[in-house]
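re: ur question from earlier - yeah i can do the single chain one, its not a big deal. heres the input i used so u can compare w yours
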Amino acid sequence: MARVKLRKALGYLLLAAVVIIAVAPIVWIVMAAFKTRVDIISYPPKFFFSPTLANFERVLSIRTIISGVKNSLIIIPSALVIGFILAVPAAYI
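and the output i got, formated as tokens:
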């Protein structure tokens, strides 16, 4: 009984480690998106900072980025509708 509990605990510990390793880069990128340039390159890294939206403002002020976002907002729903129209009859058959 104790072996089963130990094995289960080790399994959960391993699962937690894998999840942390998988999620850590995503959290790091999201945190960097809300940091200033100085906070991003500071050493040691800052985990507590004043969030800012300046990076989003800078990126969204670039005309080519806005054009790309607009194109994506047109193409993605169109592809979904076309795929749905083709997939439903194929699934029915």
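The mean pLDDT is 91. not sure if urs matches, ping me
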